Amino acid sequence: MGPDVSTPSLHVHDLAFAYPDGHQALYGVNLSIAPGERVALLGPNGAGKTTLVLHLNGILGGRDSGRAEGTVSVGGLDVAKPHLQEIRRRVGIVFQDPDDQLFMPTVGEDVAFGPANFGLRGAELTARVHQALDAVGMAEHTDRSPLHLSGGQRRRVALATVLACDPEILVLDEPSSNLDPVARRELAEVLLGLDRTMLMVTHDLPYALQLCPRSVVLDGGVVAADGPTRDLLADADLLARHRLELPFGFVLA
């Protein structure tokens, strides 16, 4: 039985947020992502992208983190204190630096850590680890130390640590950063092969075009544009207005 397409994987309604020092980062963000949709979140530094992402699994939004208004729900479940454990299983954030997620002696132990924390044990846990590593093409590296892997391999193992928790939505923070062209292509092939809802935060506009049919531009704490990625990238005035830039010589096919 597939996902209920009538319920968005992610729904953000009028989300506003100010940090304790008074800095207003979001001014009323509205965003809805359907099950299975792949969406790029674009915008200049300081646009509010990280602040938005940290609301999706409840890292921000609590009473001590600042002043928040509006609502966020994942698969119909509100991001609120009583639901935080389930929300953090549903929202899998793959951070830009794999070192933020890889800290165990072996790849297999790293991938097992999350689902074990959510209560999986024994054969079910072993199967989940194998499935996640297989999905990213890293199953043969189960017993290796993450320290001995290449940057691209570490990025894929970090992705596997999140996939092992069977999230509703994958949030990818600058997935292509610091990857050589081959590792960049390999990761793209993995991501395109996953049947998951994705929100990809990136400055890499060609990667957004390759992976995400839809893009959202966030700037100044509000959604400035939302539409087909190709259409947004073809709008030179829009890109210039929001300090977004295609690589020199890149031509939209």
TrEMBL record:
The keyword Isomerase does not apply. SMART domains: AAA. Keywords: ATP-binding, Cell membrane, Membrane, Nucleotide-binding, Translocase, Transport. InterPro entries: AAA+_ATPase (IPR003593), ABC_transporter-like_ATP-bd (IPR003439), ABC_transporter-like_CS (IPR017871), ABC_transpr_CbiO/EcfA_su (IPR015856), ECF_ABC_transporter_ATP-bd (IPR050095), P-loop_NTPase (IPR027417). GO terms for molecular function: ATP binding; ATP hydrolysis activity; ATPase-coupled transmembrane transporter activity. GO terms for cellular component: ATP-binding cassette (ABC) transporter complex. The keyword Translocase applies. Residues 10-245 form the ABC transporter domain. Its main location: membrane. It is found in: Cell membrane. It holds the Pfam family ABC_tran. Belongs to the ABC transporter superfamily. This is Cobalt/nickel transport system ATP-binding protein. It comes from Pseudonocardia sediminis.
